[in-house]
């Protein structure tokens, strides 16, 4: 579990592992927290952003360095429920 303010580094992993790990961290994070993740798999970044937006949370993607991205997610107090 990531601590508040900590940046979780998921670089160097093959997609979908970074996506799966990020979603698990997000699930474990307390509501109202901010999760910061660094990834170098553009495919996983797109998957994560799409999933987070579908849950109704705020997400921002910024360039971290030449080959990686910093994803900042604000875990909403109220999440959208997936339709059954």
Highlighted features:
2 helices, 4 strands, about 80 residues, alpha+beta, about 30% helix, four-stranded mixed sheet
Which H/E pattern describes the elements?
A: EHEHEE
Mean pLDDT comes to 89
Proportion of residues in β-strands = 25-35%
Number of helices: 2
Give the N-terminus to C-terminus distance in angstroms: 28 Å
Sheet with most strands? 4 strands, mixed
Query: Which of globular, elongated, flat, extended, rod-shaped describes the shape?
Result: globular
Helical content class: 25-40%
Quantity of strands, as a count: 4
Rg, alpha carbons: 12 Å
Q: Main sheet: which strands, in order across? A: 1-2-4-3
Poorly predicted regions: none
How would you classify the helix and strand content by structural class?
alpha+beta
Q: What does this molecule look like?
A:
This protein has two helices and four strands, in the order βαβαββ. The chain is α+β, with helices and mostly antiparallel strands and 84 residues long. The mean pLDDT is 89.
Short description:
This protein has 84 residues and is of the alpha+beta class.
């Amino acid at each position: 579990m990531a601590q508040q303010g900590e940046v979780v580094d998921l670089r160097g992993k093959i997609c979908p592992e970074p996506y799966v790990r990020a979603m698990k961290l997000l699930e474990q994070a307390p509501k109202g927290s901010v999760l910061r993740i660094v990834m170098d798999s553009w495919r996983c970044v797109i998957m994560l952003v799409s999933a987070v937006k579908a849950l109704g949370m705020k997400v921002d993607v910024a360039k971290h360095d030449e080959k990686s991205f910093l994803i900042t997610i604000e875990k909403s107090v109220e999440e959208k429920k997936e339709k059954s």
